[in-house]
Amino acid sequence: MKLITAILAAATLISTPAMSADLFQKNACIGCHDAEKKKMGPSWKDIAAKSSKEEIKNAIANGSKGKFGKIPMPPQPKAVADADALADAILAHK
């Protein structure tokens, strides 16, 4: 039983690129962001280099203005439930 619990716990901590891509698509992040290059918003690589997990979660919930250029990011209320996983996926691009 302990082995099964350990395996399930480890599985929830592992984020594969496919899982991240699905999460980014589900929350419409891919409309403005890309892993490597700037689109309307900064790349996840740039965000990861300049932001903490809490800053990313705050930007998802409340929006962001001025940190990455002139175009503001509006709050993303539908993505708040996934903010922790999204922040981890973004920070994986460091």
Outline the structure in words.
- The chain is mostly helical and 94 residues long.
- It has one domain: Cytochrome c-like domain (Cytochrome Bc1 Complex, Chain D, domain 2, Orthogonal Bundle), CATH 1.10.760.
- It is built from 5 helices and no strands.
- It has helices spanning 2-13, 17-26, 44-50, 53-62, 83-91.
- Helix 4 crosses helix 5.
- The longest helix has 12 residues, at 2-13.
- The radius of gyration is 14 Å and the shape is globular.
- The chain starts with a helix and ends with a helix.
Poorly predicted ranges: 8-15
Q: Mean pLDDT, nearest integer?
A: 87
Structural class: mainly alpha
Helix content: 40-55%
Number of strands: 0
For the record, the CATH architecture stands as Orthogonal Bundle
CATH superfamily: Cytochrome c-like domain
Largest sheet: none
Query: End-to-end span in angstroms?
Result: 36 Å
Run of helices and strands:
HHHHH
Top CATH class: Mainly Alpha
Key terms:
mainly alpha, Cytochrome Bc1 Complex, Chain D, domain 2, 0% strand, single chain, 94 residues, globular
Topology:
Blueprint: H1 2-13, H2 17-26, H3 44-50, H4 53-62, H5 83-91
Helix pairs in contact: 4-5
Give a nutshell description of this structure.
With 94 residues, this protein is mostly helical. 51% of the residues lie in helices and 0% in strands.
